[in-house]
Amino acid sequence: MIETIHLSDSVVLRHCPDDRFKKGALSVQLLRPMCREEAANNALLVSVLLRGTKDCPNLRSITWRLDELYGAAVSTLVRRIGDVQTVGFYMNFMEDRFAMPGDQVLAPTIDFMRQLFLEPVTVNGAFDPEFVESEKKNLISAIDSERNDKRTYAAAQMLRYMCQGDSFAEPRIGRREDVAAITAQSLYAHYQKILRTSPVEIFYAGSASAQEVARLLRPLADALGAEAEPAPAQTMFTPTAEPREFSETLDVNQGKLCMGFTTPINNQHPDFVAMQVFNTVYGGGMTSKLFLNVREKMSLCYYANSGYYGSKGIVTVSSGIDEENYETAKSEILHQLELCVQGQITPEELNSAKKALISSLRSTPDSPGSLEGFYATAAVSGMKLDIPDYIEAVEAVTAADVARCASTVKLHTTFFLKGVSA
C-alpha cells in the first residue's frame, strides 16, 4: 500500500495512494535527536515559521492564501517518537479532481509548504523579533498549562523521574527556561542548521501518482538535508537495578499515583502485537482489569489506565486516588498485573481487548489524517507492520501470549503527587 521513494539520500517520501477522499494530506517532518539542547528551539521554530512567508508575510495573508486553495488547512507538527523529535507541518487540501475546471490545488499547496520551510519573514538577517517573542509566550503558556492539569503533570513527572539520563525524560515541547532564553538570532541560526543537517520524512495520501508528487516536491527536497546526519537510532530504555519511589506535594484535592514499568518488548520485537493486547487487557480501556476491578468494583481509583510506549519498552499506569488509599491502590494495581502473569484472563477480557484494538486499526484508513498519523509515526519509530497484517496479528493473540508478555513487565518507578495537607 505504501510506496517509499528516496528523493535524495536524506529525504524520503512515503506515498499512500487513496482515491476515496475529497481531501488529500501532506506532512513534511525534520527528524531531530530528542534532547534538551534542541527541544524548545524545535517546538518554537515551526510556530514562528507559520507566522508568515515572503509572499504571505502575516497570518491574515496566510489565511487568504489557504482560502484560495479551496479552504486548505495547515498545522504545526511537534512529535516525540522514542529518541526522535520530529518538527514540521501537516496540510490537508481538496483533491484536484474536485476543483473547478482548470484549477490546481496540489501543486500550489506543495509550493506553499516549500515557502513555509524556505522563505520565512526575516528582519536584519534573523527572524522577526515580534513573531519570536509572541510565539515564545504561547509556548511558555502551553508548558505552564501542563502543570495546571495535574493528571498530565503527574504522568509527565513520573516519566522524567523514571527516565533520568534518557532522551525520554525530556518534555516534548521543551522546558520553560529554555524557551525564555531563545532569541530571534539564535533561533534563526538553529533553523539554518537543521535545514542542512536533518533527515526528512514526507508523507502523502491522495489520488496523485507517486511520480507526480515526487516531481512537485523536488524544489523543497533539493533544499533540505544537504549535510544530513543519520536520524537518531531508537534505543530501548535501560532500567536501573531497583524500583524507585518519588513524591511531590502540590495543592491538589485528589492524589495522582503513577507507575512506570519496563519490558524488553519493543515495537520491533516478535511479541509487539501481543504486548499491545496485554496493555489493553491490563488497563487500556473500559473493559480492562484496572478499570473494571480497581476503579469500578473496588472503588480505589477515580480513574486508572495503562499505556505502552513501544519504541522504548515502557508501560505506564496513571490513577487518581484518595491519599489514604495509596498503599491499597498500589498493591491492587500490581495484583492485577500478577493476574495477567498467571494467565487469569477471561475470554471476555481477551476478546474485548482484541476487538478494541482491531476497531481502532480498522478506523485508521477512514481519513487521510489518521493514515498520516499511523504511517508517518511508524516510519520514524521503526515499526514495520501494515494495517492488514497488524489486524491479522491481533486476531491470532492468545491468553498465553498475553501472560508471556505480562511476565516481562517489571516495576521501575512509582510517583505520587499528593496534596499539601497529606
Helix and strand arrangement:
Blueprint: E1 3-6, E2 11-17, E3 23-33, H1 36-49, H2 59-68, E4 73-81, E5 84-94, H3 106-118, E6 122-123, E7 126-127, H4 129-148, H5 150-162, H6 176-180, H7 184-197, E8 200-206, H8 210-221, E9 244-249, E10 255-262, H9 272-282, H10 289-297, E11 303-309, E12 314-321, H11 326-341, H12 347-363, H13 368-381, H14 387-396, H15 399-406, E13 410-418
Provide structural commentary.
With 422 residues, the protein is α+β, with helices and mostly antiparallel strands. It is built from 15 helices and 13 strands. The strands form three sheets. A six-stranded mixed beta sheet has the order 1-2-8-3-5-4, sandwiched between helices. Strands 9-13-10-12-11 form a five-stranded mixed beta sheet, sandwiched between helices. Strand 6 and strand 7 form a beta hairpin. Helix 1 crosses helix 4. The longest helix has 20 residues. The model has no long low-confidence stretch (mean pLDDT 96).
